[in-house]
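Incident log, structure service

09:12 report received: a user says their structure output differs between two submissions of the same chain.
09:20 pulled the input from the user's history:
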Amino acid sequence: MTTTVVVKASHGWPVDVTPKDPKTGAPLQSYPTVRVPPNEERAVYVHSGMDLHIHEVQPDEISEDPRAA
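09:34 re-ran on a clean worker, output below:
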């Protein structure tokens, strides 16, 4: 079964969504972290029992993160 989760980064900050193994908590190698840009929304698909870690990225993290460039 697949579940759709809509992530809305609606307050001016990007949001990172990381699929994780529910048994170990480790990020899933085959499903990379998705960054939802500020003021946008994205559908993220969850299946096979995976968990999602959803994190609102803060300004100090953006300056340190090479994906932000």
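09:41 both user submissions now match this output. Likely a transient worker issue. Closing.
09:42 reviewer note: The helical segments are 59-64. The chain has one domain: 2-68.
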